[in-house]
Design a protein that fits this description.
single chain, 3 helices, 12 strands, globular, disordered N terminus
Length: about 180
């Protein structure tokens, strides 16, 4: 029993430390071999009741550089059928701990907006102005892709996360 508790605690410590360092990407960084303005959703999850939960879900690249008015596209290439969101938040709203990831208020708001309808709403607050303001959110289903025009002004960054998996965090640097 003592070994099982140590294993669970060790896993939790590694997970929390990885999130705090911003490096929970499931291994070495992905090389920048992608098309411009394309962000891939990668990773997988494993679950063992009463013992282990791991997730390597991530946006790749984590940061993308583009200009106001350009279109960015996200494509789901992970290894599970989970949907994901790209939900714009203020930098201060990005979870930096295990507890914050599971008490993410903007995540709850986005999930209510996406899944409060049948079928789910794929675009929340992403209107003619484009993608770039807190509250803007896109829902991507398994194996699909979705795009949006970036509306944030030059010299700013747009921070976003997956409302279902808040450790998945990315940013768009607008030049």
């Amino acid at each position: 029993m003592h070994r099982k508790v140590l294993a669970i605690l060790s896993t939790a410590i590694v997970f929390i430390a990885s999130m705090a360092m911003g490096s929970f990407a499931g291994g070495a960084p992905t090389p920048r071999d992608h098309a411009p303005n394309l962000v891939r959703l990668l990773g997988r999850e494993t679950f063992e009741a009463n013992a282990l939960v791991t997730s390597t879900f991530r946006f790749s690249p984590e940061r993308e550089f583009l200009h106001t008015g350009e279109r960015v596209r996200w494509i789901d290439q992970d290894q599970v059928p989970d949907p994901h969101t790209m939900t714009v938040v203020r930098k201060s709203q990005l979870p930096t701990s295990f507890a914050e990831a599971f008490a993410c208020e903007p995540c709850n708001d986005a999930l209510d907006a996406h899944f409060g309808t049948t079928p789910p709403t794929t675009r929340v607050d992403v209107g003619a102005a484009g993608f770039g303001q807190p509250g803007d959110s896109l829902l991507i289903l398994d194996g699909a892709s979705i795009g949006a025009t970036v509306s944030a002004p030059a010299g700013t960054s747009v921070f976003y996360l997956c409302a279902l998996h808040p450790w998945m965090q990315g940013s768009l640097r607008v030049g």
